[in-house]
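Quiz preparation item.
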């Protein structure tokens, strides 16, 4: 993914916010996580990372999707980094939808 594309995607995520970005991700980006072509797979993971910088809901949703689609490559190496933050979100009673996404992830 070129730097211009990454910057544009990041700005789009920040401008639109999670309420627009999150509902459209499963039908577009996450369908390509299991793609055989490494370049497409790399682009998807990069795009998720770029989008997640602008939206906390995307981060939690992305963690859930990465855990499901790339369990061996994601869960074992990163569980000690990710779980404390997901548990902290569970205590955020002002954002019940975010809590639910954290629980599912």
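Solution:
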């Amino acid at each position: 993914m070129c730097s211009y594309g990454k910057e544009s995607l990041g700005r789009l995520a920040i401008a639109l916010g999670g309420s627009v970005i999150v509902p459209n991700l499963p039908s577009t980006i996450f369908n390509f996580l299991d793609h055989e072509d490494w370049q497409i797979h790399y682009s998807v993971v990069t795009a998720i990372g770029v989008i997640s910088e602008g939206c906390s809901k995307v981060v939690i949703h992305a963690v859930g999707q990465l855990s499901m689609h790339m369990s061996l490559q994601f869960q074992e190496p990163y569980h000690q980094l990710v779980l404390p933050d997901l548990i902290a979100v569970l205590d955020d009673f002002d954002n019940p939808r975010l809590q639910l996404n954290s629980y599912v992830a």
